[in-house]
Fold these 2 entries.
Entry 1:
Amino acid sequence: MTRPAGDVLLEVNDLKVHFPIKSGVVVDRTVGHVYAVDGVDLAIRRGETYGLVGESGCGKSTLGRAILRLSPLTAGQVVFDGTDVAKLKGEELRKARRRMQMIFQDPLSSLDPRQSVESILVEGMHAHGLDKDKAATQRRLRQLLAAVGLPETSLRKYPHEFSGGQRQRIGIARALAVEPDLIVADEPVSALDVSVQAQVVNLLEDLQDKLGLTYVVIAHDLAVVRHISDRIGVMYLGALVEETDADSLYQDPLHPYTRALLSAIPVPDPQVEDTREQILLAGDLPSPANPPSGCRFHTRCPWKQASLCDTDRPQLREIGAGHRVACHYAEDIRDGRIQPHEVKAELVELTGALNPDLGPPDIGTAAEIL
Amino acid sequence: MALLEVRDLTVRFVRRGERSFTAVDGVSFDVEPGQTVGLVGESGCGKSVTSLAIMRLLARRGNEVSGSVRFEGTDLLKLSDRDMRDRRGRDLGMVFQDPLSSLNPVIPIGLQITEVLERHRGMSRKAASVEATDLLDKVGIPDPSRRLSEYPHQLSGGMRQRALIAIALACRPRLLIADEPTTALDVTIQAQILALLRELVQDTGTALIMITHDLGVVAGLCDEVNVLYGGKIVERAQRHQLFAEPRHPYTHGLLASIPRLDAGRGEKLIPIRGSVADNIPWDHGCAFAPRCPNALPVCREVQPQLVPDRAGLLRCHNPVRPAVAAGGGTR
C-alpha cells in the first residue's frame, strides 16, 4: 500500500515527557526525572495503522497519551492535521480532542459502572454538541452499536452486564461516537481471552476499512501489532530504536533489540520453536530515571562494540526505503561483519541510581546463567 | 508407574444459597518422571484450580474435591494435613503467576529460601544460607550473596520469578507445577525464564506441569499437551501432533485465532464466535457446542466422551478432519 507521501495526519517532533521525582515532606524538591519519553520523532499518514511496541517501561503508553495531551509534554511538537496540539489551551484543545480518541486496555475500569451504555455513548457527543437532534442521536446510537456488533438492547444495560470482549466493543463505540480521525488504542486486546482477541482485532480492521480511520496501536505483543499495523515503531527506554513497515520488521530486523524481541516471542508451532535460534537478552531493563549513557541498549546488547556504543547516543537514521534505525553498527550487523558475543548481566537497582563504586558484579557469562 | 496419576479429579465450588459450580470436571492425566505436561485453556477452564487441587491448596470450606491424585502410589487427597505439609516443597514444588503476591513482602529473599531448606532437609541455618546462595546463582540472579538479604520489592519482576523458582527447587522436588509462570513478565524476560525452566528440567530430571493460556509457550516446552474447556479435557496429544493436526474444533479455533509472528501479512484471523459465557452445561451435551463451527444437533443432546484418537485423546462428536485442518478453515 503506497499513499501520497504528503498526506501526513500526525507528526511528532522531538517529543519529550519527563516526570519529576519528588522528595521531601514539607518542601517538594525535585531530585531527578523519569525520562519516560525522551526525544521521539514520527509521522503517521492518514488511514494507516501505526504500531508501537516495546516492553513495559519503554514509554509507549506515555507517548500515546502525550499525543492526545493526556500526559503533560516537557518539550516537542505534536502536529495534528496542521495544528500544533502541544500549544493548544482551554476551549481550543477541547475542540481538537473530538478528532482524537482513545481506546483503553482494561474495558472494565475505563467504563463508568454507574452509567448505562447509552449515557456512556452520548456523553462525548453531548460534550461536542453533536446531540442536538434527538431522533438523529438515537439513529446514531443504533448505528454505533451495529458497527461494533452489539445488539440494540445494550443501550439500557450497564457495563457489568457484558463480557470482556463486549465491554471492549463499548469502549470502541464510545471512541467512534464523536467521529474521530485518529484513534490511539492502548493495548486494546491484551486483557481479553485469546479466542476473543481475534474478534476485536478483526473489528478494528473492519472499522478502519469502512470509516477510513487512522490508528496508533500500542501493544507489547509484537504478533498482534504485526498483524494489524502497516508500519511499526519499536521503543526502548523512551526512544524509538527502529521503524519500518510490518513485513520488513519481521524479515529484516536491523536493530539488535528488535532482533532479540522477535526471537523471544513464542510461536505456536513446535517445528519453528525447535529449530529457530533465540537471542536471549541478559539482565533487566535499566531504570528510565537513570538511563545508560550512549546507546541505551548497550548494557544488554550482544553486538556492542568497544567504541561509540557507550558514549554516543545513536540517532534514528534511514537505511533503505522507509526503514529507520538507531544503531551505530546497523549495516555491519546486517552484513555479518560483527558477530554477537556474550553479555554479562548488569545488576539493575530498582530503588535508584546504579552505585558507581560497585562496578559490574562478577557473575559469569550470559550462557552460564541462562 | 507414572510419577503422578490424576484420576477423575473433580472440584465443585459450593456456596450457601448459590448453585454449585463444577470448576474441574473429571480430569485424569499422568505425568512420567522427567516429562513436561501442559494444561492449556482460557480463563475459567479450570486449569489453575486443577493445580491447586493437586497441591491441596484449596480451602476446605466451599470446595468439594473428589477423585484421586496419586504421587508415587500415595493418594495426596487422603493424606493428613501434616503429611501433606511434609510433601509440599519437598516432593512437589509450585511456581505461581504473580511473584510479588506469592513472596512474603516483609521477609528477605534469603530467609524465604533457607526456611524451606531448614524445614524439609533439616539443614542448619548456616549450611542453608550457603545452599541458598547456590540456588540463587543457579537460577541466574546476579550477585546472589548480596541478594539474600534483600526484600522482594527490591527485585525486578523477572528476578522475583527466579527467586520463586529457587524456592520451589530448593528441595529438588520430583514434580514442579508452574501456573502461568511467565504471564506477568515481558517477552524478553519470559524467554529467559522459559529457557531456565527448560534447562532445569533437563538437568535435574524434574517432571513439570506447565499451566498456561499461551499456545506459543506450550509449543516450545511441553511433551504432551492437554487442552481444557469448561473444566474437562477436550483433547490430548503430543505437541507436534497437536499443533500440526488439531482435532478438536476448539483447539483448531484457538490456533486459527492467534496472530502468528511468522504468518504472511493480510491473513484474516478466524475468531471463535461468542465467549466462554455462552457455554452450556456438560450434562446436556458439549459445553463448546454453542460456539463450535462444526456443531451437529447431537452435540447439544449427548455428552461426548473422551476417547482414544490416534496417539492421544479426543472429546468430540464431529472433529476437524486433518485434511480440512491443513487447509486452514472449517467454515
Entry 2:
Amino acid sequence: MLELVGLSRRYGDVVALDGLSITIPSGEVFGLLGPNGAGKTTAMRTILGISTPDSGHVLLDGQPIGLDQRRRFGYLPEERGLYGGMHVRDQLVYLAELHGMSSHDAKTSAQSWLERLGIADRATDKLSALSLGNQQRVQLAAALVHGPDVLILDEPFSGLDPVATDELGRVLDEVSGGGSTVVFSSHQLDLVESRCSSVAIIDKGKLVASGSVLDLTTSGRRRLVVELASASPNGWAKGIEGVSVSESAGSRVRLVLEDGVDPQVVLRAAMGAGTVTYFSFERRRLSEVFREAVSR
Amino acid sequence: MNRTRLVVRREMRERLRSRAFQVATVISVLVVGGAIILPALNRNPFNEAVKVGVVGRPVSQVQSQVSSVKSLLKAPTKVTAVASQDAGEDQLRRSKLDVLVVGTKEIFVRQGDETTDRMQVASTLAYLPAFTGHPLALHPIGAPRPQAAGRFTAFLGVILTYTFVAVYGGMVLNGVAEEKSSRVAEVLLSAVRPSELLTGKVVGIGAVALLQGLITAASAVVAGAIVGTNILHGTGVGRLCSMLGWFLLGYTFYSFVNAAAGSLVNRQEEASSMAFPIQLPLLVGYLTTIGSLSNGDDSKLIRVLSFLPPTAPVTMPIRIAIGAAKPWQIALSLVLMVAGIVVAARLASRIYARSILRTGKRLKFRQALQSAPI
C-alpha cells in the first residue's frame, strides 16, 4: 500500500499540493485524475522522491521510502525523455542497471521487453531513428525494464491512437497482475475509467473524490439517456420536475434525475415528443463525479 | 555496480564510440605529429644559403675550405668579406649573417640549436683545421635561449590544455543541457542522486579527455623519437605529468562551471551561447601567456594570472617551464586551484540540483543558488 499523507508544496505563489492525502492499494491499476494543473505531476514526482514536499510524507507499506526502495519504482514522465543518440538496447540496459539490476539480468530483461513490445528489430538503432510510436514503446520499456514494484506513469495515454491505447492498457493489466502497483495520471477522466480499478480525483492540489471506479460511477443521482427518432423537437425534457439536462446532442439527451423522480414520467414526456428509440439508465461518468464534487 | 560508475561508463562508451571523437583524435595526432616531423624533415625548405662573413683573412681561403667539404653540407654556402669584426657581429645579431670567421682563431655563429644548417657550417669550419693545425674557438652569439626545448613543450602543453579544456568543457555543458532539454534527467533522477549524475558526467568526460590527451602526447613523443629531433629534450616524465596535472585541474574547474550553466538552459541551442563567456578567462590567460612567451617575459600580469584558478592552468605551466616560478608560488597556485575547484564543485552541485528539472524561464546563476530545492 502506497500512502500520500498530507502533502503540501508551493512553487512561489503557486500552490501545487494542498494537504493531499491518498491511499493507493497494492497490486492495482490506480488512476490519479484531475484537470490540467491539479497537481498530478507534483504528486507523482513526490512519490518518486524527485520533488520534496514542504510538508507531509509518502509511505510504502507503512514505512518511509528510502532510495533503495525508490530504485524499485519505475517512472514514465509526462514529457517523454531518453537519449536520442543512444542505441535503444544500450539505453534500456543502462536504465535497468541504474535501478540496481546486474548487467546480465538487465540485458535479458531489455531484450524480453523489446520483444514484448514488438521493437526487437530496432534494438541497435538510435532512438531518434525510430517513429514516434516506437519511441513511446521504448519509453514504456524504460519504465518497466527493471521489473518495478511500483510503476508511476504520468499521462501515459495522451497522444496514443486507439490501438496503442489498448496495447498500453493490456501491458498495465499484466504488470499489476504480476503484483506490481500501477499508478497513472490523466486529465481525460472519461477515457481512462475502464483502465483502472480505483481512482483519486484531485483539483487544486486537494483530493475531491476517491474510491473504486464502480462505487463512484454507480453512486449519486441517476443518469438517464433518451433518444428520439430524428427530426423530433428538442427541449421536451425541460420543465419536468426534478430532471435536468446535462448533455444534448441531436435528438439524444443525457438527463440527471433527482431522487424520487419516476422514470415513467420522463418516458411519457418523451413519447409525447416523438418516437423513443433509446431509453436507458447509464453509469455516472468520472467527469460528472468530478464536476459534481467541485461544484459542491 | 555503483551508480556513479555506471554514469561514468556510459559517458565514456558513448563518447569513445562517436565519430567526432575518432576524427578529433586522428586530427590531433596528425597535427601534433606533423608539427614535430615536418620541420625536422626539412629544416630549410627554401634551400636558403648559409651566409658566411670573413674578416682578417682572405675570402678565397675560407671559400676553398667550404668547397672541399661541399658534399657534406646540407645547405649551399655563400662566403663574403666583412669590413670589420664589429660590423660582422652586428650583422650576425641582425640576421644578415649566419656565421662570422675572424682570422684563424675564432668563429662566431648566431645562436640556435645544433641541428641548424648554420651550426653545421660553423662547426665544420671550426674543426676542419684541426687536421693541420688548431681548431678555431666557436662562439655562439645573440640572445641566449636557455631551456628552449622545455619552452616548446610547455608551449605545446598550453595550446593543448586550452583546446582540451574548451572542447571537453563544452561537452559537459552540452551533455548536461541535452539531459535537461530531452527530459531524460527526470527518468535518471528517479534512480540516481543529482550529485551522482553530475559527478559521473564530469569524471566520464574527463577520462575521455585524458585518454585523448595521452594519445596526443604519446604521438608527440613517438614523432620526436622517429625524426630524432631534440625539441622534446629535457621533457622528462615529470614535465609531462605536470602538464597533464594542470590540464586535469583546469578541466575539473571548468567542467563544474559548465555543468552548472548547462543545467540552467532550456534548449540545447541556448547552451552554445553560454560557452563563450564561461571560457573567456581561459582565453585571456591563454593569449596573455602565448604573447609573453614569444618574448620570454615573466610579466606582472602573468604572475597574477598564474595564481587565479580560472587562468592558472594555462599560465603557471609556462612560468614553471621558463624557470620563473618559485616553489612557494607553485605551491600557492596549486592550493588556490584546488580550493577554486572545491568552491566551483559545491556551487555547481547546488545550482545543478535546483535547476536540472526546472523548465520555463531560464534561471540566472544567482536565482538558482537561492531557490528552494525541486
